[in-house]
Amino acid sequence: MTDAVMPLSGVRIIDFTQVMLGPCCTQMLGDFGADVIKIERPGVGDLSRSFYGERSEEAMNNAVFASLNRNKRSVTLDTKSDEGRQAALDLIKTADVVVDNFRAGVMDRLGFGYDALSALNPRIICASGTGFGPTGPYTHKGGQDVLAQAMTGVMEKTQDASIPKSIYPTTLCDYSAGMHLVQGIMAALLMREKTGVGQQVGVSLYDSMIAMQMQEAAQWSKHREVLNWAAMPLTGVFDTADGAIVMVGAFKANPLQDICTALQIDDLSPEYPTLSIQRANKAFLQETFRGVLASNSSAYWLDRLEAVDLLCAPVRSLGDALADPQTEINGMLCPMDHPVLGEITLVGSPVHLSAAPMSVRHPPPRLGEHTNEVLQELAQRLRTEAAE
User: Fold this and answer.
1) What is the three-class DSSP state of 328?
2) Cα→Cα distances 136→131, 140, 177, 283, Å
């Protein structure tokens, strides 16, 4: 597929982002055709380049950085110098969207806030991902995934009161906020088609985590009742003789009866007929399931549970999931040759467009790899505009 027919071909993104929230957003825009110009600090670059704490070329092009930065061109500019700042402003004059994920107010202090940029380019869309939003009591705090988990109630809930509270082991908040930022940018681009002018787009880790709990929030607001999907009485993770499975006892007329049938035990549903009674006796029910499921293999129990149409699955490692044929069939493996790392397989896009599949036009860039190329393009454009 050529750039010309990609959904976002012709859209230029000036990308000041780093780490994850912003880069996962701009990578998705790049995957579908946008020209993403990544502005990086000379000699340092995106903080993800320092994942190993080293400055070797291999370390600064590590797999963590690579996972978030394909389909981008890297330009190194010292935006605190007059020359670097002017180059950035000249690029922004040619752009459609400027994206950052600094603390609130940083872009204004750097001279790249919306008021300043819209005066240069009224069509510009300024999209920011922050920790807590542009105003309020927490704007001074650094935004970080784990903090958002803690402050929004996500970390407080566990499957069982006996389980210690812990950090969710993947970047739940960064990714969800990054995808919300994609949505906001796309909505702003559509609105600009109608109005001819840009606007500000804002998302935060905090808001994204509140939004992810929309069902729980409604239940709490109306009934002051904690809704915890992981703590449902017939749902849980259970060890088997050779691994572990997850079982979801829900969405059926009498899931407890079906569980008992699959586990070949006496039907407990007459004694525990309602959800409220099952909740009150969760410890007994779960211990009963646990004792039986430990007696045989995961494959054995999955076959029996699926035979009565109960939702269940094996608990697998990421390596197992990546090796599953379904992952490749779904287009979620993105192998490429990297000039520093060699062969590397990245995760593809979860968004599948039948007429415009995601394409890799640029491997994750080396620091400043495209500086000369982009600045030469800019100089030619400025000369052409001056001549006109």
Assistant:
1) helix
2) 11, 9, 19, 42
Residue 5's pLDDT is 82
370: number of Cβ within 10 Å: 19
CATH 3.40.50.10540 residue spans of the chain: 3-213+324-387
What is the pLDDT confidence band of residue 4, given thresholds at 50, 70 and 90? Answer: low
Alpha-carbon distance of 274 to 97, in angstroms, equals 53
288 — alpha (psi -120 to 50), left (phi > 0) or beta? alpha
* β pairing state of 244-248 and 97-100: unpaired
Q: Which residue's entry shows tokens 């640029």?
A: 362
Homologous superfamily of domain range 3-213+324-387: Crotonobetainyl-coa:carnitine coa-transferase; domain 1 (3.40.50.10540)
Q: How far apart are CA 177 and CA 24, in angstroms?
A: 9
pLDDT digits (tens, 9 = 90+) for 167-183: 999 999 999 999 999 99
User: Is 135 buried (19+), middle (13-18) or exposed (0-12) by CB count in 10 A?
Assistant: exposed
Cα separation, 72 vs 9, whole angstroms: 13
| Confidence band, pLDDT 50/70/90 cuts, at residue 2 | low
Alpha-carbon span 368 to 40, nearest angstrom: 7
Report field, pTM of the whole predicted structure over 0.90: yes
Cβ-contact 50, 41 below 8 angstroms: no
